Amino acid sequence: MGDPLIITAAIVGAETTRDQTPFLPITPSEIAEEARRCFAEGASIIHLHVRKKDGTPTQDKEVFKSAITAIKEQCPDIIVQVSTGGAVGMSFEERSQPLLLNPEMATLTTGTVNFGDEVFLNPLPMIKDLATMMKKRGITPEVEIFDSGMIETAKYLIKKGLLPEHPHFDFVMGVPGGIGGDLECLKFLISRIPKGSTFSVAGVGKYELPLAKEAIKLNGHVRVGLEDNIYIKKGVLAKGSWELVQEVAKMAKDEKRLPATPDETREILKIGRWGD
Ligand code: KMH
Ligand code: ZN
C-alpha cells in the first residue's frame, strides 16, 4: 500500500446556495450529519464555513462553536479546519473570529485574487495578523494557494517565522481569476513549494474530480465537497459532499492508497506541533 491519503471535505463554503443544490447543509445539526457521512466515507478533515439561519455566510464565533460542538458529538476524532477566508468582502475582525475557539487547524490565504466578478482581498498586513494569531494559539495553518505568487508570499512568511518551515499547502485550482485547473499548473505549483512540504488539491467545478485523481497519483492529498463543486458527474448533482468523498476513496483504492485516519492525518500534518 502507498502513503495514506488525507481527504478533506469542504461541506459548506460561503458561495454555494440551496438554490444550486438542495444537499447543502446549513444548520449545525445538518452540518454535523454531513460531517458524519463524510467521515464514514474516509474524510479526516472538515473544512468548515458556517451560515446564518437564512443561509448567508457568517464568521460568527458562536455559530462556529455550535457547528463544531455538533460535529464533535457525531465524530469526536475528526479534525475541524475553520475558514479564515470567510466570504469576499469580510473584514479581519469577522474573518478571525473562529480562531478564538482554538481549533486544531485553520486556513490562511497568502494573497489577493480575482474571484469571478469579485475580489478575494488578502493584503499582506492582514495575512500576517492571521498568521500571528494562529501561531500564538498553536493552530496549524493550511496555506490556501489560488495562484502561484501566493507560494512566494508563503515562503516570505516562513522566513519571518510566521509559518512552519514545511507547511501544508492546499492548491485551490480553477477559480475564475486564479490559476488554471490542469495538470501542467498542478505540477508547476508542486515544483514551487519548499521540499518536504505537503499539499492537497481542491479543484473547483469541473476540475474537482480529475484533479483529485492527479493529486492521488502525485502522492498529494485531496479536498472535495459542495463548497468547490456540486456535481458527481456532468449534469448530475452529488447527493452530498459524502458522495464526492466516496468517489475519491474509490480512486485512492485504484492507486493503492487508503484514506488517512484523523490520527494519521495529525501525524502527517504535524498538527499540534506549531506555535509559541
Ligand atoms: N470563500 C472564499 C472567498 C478559505 O476558506 O479560507 C474564500 C475561502 C477560503 O473559502
Ligand atoms: Zn473555504
Question: Quick gist of this model?
Answer:
The protein has helices at residues 28-41, 61-74, 92-95, 124-137, 149-159, 183-192, 208-217, 241-254, 262-268, and strands at 7-10, 45-48, 50-51, 57-58, 79-82, 105-109, 113-115, 118-120, 140-145, 168-173, 198-203, 221-224, 231-233, 236-237. With 276 residues, it is α/β, with parallel strands linked by helices. The longest helix is centred in the first third of the chain and has 14 residues, at 28-41.
Walkthrough of the structure:
This protein is α/β, with parallel strands linked by helices and 276 residues long. Helix content is 36%, strand content 20%. It is built from nine helices and 14 strands. It has an eight-stranded parallel barrel, surrounded by eight helices. The longest helix has 14 residues, at 28-41. It is globular and about 45 Å long. The model has no long low-confidence stretch (mean pLDDT 98). The chain binds (5S)-5-amino-3-OXO-hexanoic acid (KMH) and zinc ion (ZN). (5S)-5-amino-3-OXO-hexanoic acid binds next to β6.
